[in-house]
Amino acid sequence: MSSQQSTDLPTRDLLLQKVCDHLKVIYPHLQDCGLAEELVRVMRLDEDCQTPLPHKDLWDETDIVVITYGNTILSGNQHPLKTLHHFLKTHFTMLINSVHILPFFPYSSDDGFAVIDYRQVDPSLGDWNDILPISTDFHLMADLVINHCSSQHQWFINFQRNQDPGRDYFFTVHPNEDLSGVVRPRTTPLLRSVKNGDESRCVWCTFGHDQIDLDFRNPKVLLEMVDIIRLYLDMGVRIFRLDAVAFLWKKIGTSCINLEETHEIVRLLRTLVEHADPNAIIITETNIPNRENLSYFGNANEAHLIYNFSLPPLLVHTLVSGNCHHLKNWLMSMPPAQNGTTYFNFIASHDGIGLRPVEGLLSDEEQQALIQTMENFGGRISWRALDDGSAKPYEINIALYDALRGTTAGEDQWQLQRFICAHAIMLALEGIPAFYLHSLVGTTNDYARVEEHGHNRAINRRQWQEQALNEKLADRDSHHHRVFYRLRELIQLRREQAAFHPNATQFTLHLGEQIFAFWRQSLDRRQSVFCLNNISDREQRVLLSSLNLIGIDCWKDLLSGEVFEDMMGEITLAPYQTLWITNRW
């Protein structure tokens, strides 16, 4: 078909053609496009569906995300989702415009990521009537736990009974197959033997025996997920986080990670979602080495956003070692995101500080030094299985405030300054910044929760009573107050700078190993911001002449208010001090 003929087609016909093209890659054995018709019908895409504009940025410098569980903040007998909504509106109106509520569905384990029912809100949190107001006041990000579901899901119960729907929804494999090349994020056995009617079959469990991997070779599974996406759109979800999507497609004899069919399914979901809502966003959660992670941008036709997974371990390593060599090299190697895509920057989350994303970036010795330092500060280590049956550290579990207690030399007096410096760096980098709610309020390690729940990740999943937390935030002598108000100030300043647009120009500066510095320039080239960060516990001096400040402009540090008039002068940065030097304010 010629391009002229193609552009003359109605929008829905063009969409069907595009969906068929995706499906030919995923299911080459399909003889017709009946599945495409069914997918478009499930998404309710009629003749009036909207054509998304390619390479359109759906964000700007005002976009800030907070990440939280639905029950992080509690208040009496009120639904936790109502309490969360109230807390966010009270403290973050006009500062944070997006909220990622971690899985808020009925679940059996993994703090929400073993979903029992994708179509319901966990009654202990509330119901859809609690979700809708949040999605009205904030851009709502929700998880599509797409790789697996709970062993208590009705689909899996039906699988065991050999009934529909579910009898053919799960990936099964003969136990004698050679699976030695499969990449695992856990140390638990990959296969679980279960009854399937009168037979015993081995189901695939990437993450554990309560999380059974779905089989996307069956188009009915794809249809189920698309139907769930449609429901989430109806309930106000704007940003879809594809959880553990890298493991989606399996082929015996391969690593079963990042396969071409997986990428094509991401492309297909993007096509469907953005035709349903041109402002909807796909973000892929792929906690894997940096080069593999970057592949999920595709050619600006897969994820709109990808998690910048290398940033947390590299930044923590930088701040505890007092040397930015690796962070600087990594930043120089990162490609600018194409328009219509950008990075999702975070330095703390409900999970730990992943170590796979620094494979090839930090040496084994440097990783071990980081692990030892984190253990000294109360952290725990989670492991994954290797091909030879041995185990390797997979992530560090620790609250970020505790992770920055000191350096490799031990604890010191610079914890707060180090913590604020880390977030100042994140806020200024290319991409959209995301704050874990516990970081915003300076939460520390919760050892009691680890003991109660029996897994390391619980260390950074404290539950707060709203009144108690508000009292901490109001107490000027508490570190919670100091963290909270310092971060609020930084967020407000970031939102006012055009040079901090997620796709604004970024260049790495070379000012030594103790000054991590980069330059941002607004899309219209009118504003520049030179971001200088002393990542050491010693004063550092910088010559203004090394920044190439334009002589005809007036330059000011946004954070201290200091104006620089002598372009040949010298500036001194206190330990962990940040400067945002700009020509427009």
From TrEMBL:
Organism, scientific name: Microbulbifer aestuariivivens
Gene3D superfamilies per record: Glycosidases, Golgi alpha-mannosidase II, Oligo-1,6-glucosidase, Domain 2
Protein name: Glucosylglycerate phosphorylase
Source organism superkingdom: Bacteria
Glycosyl hydrolase family 13 catalytic domain ranges (all copies): 63-494
Keywords: Glycosyltransferase, Transferase
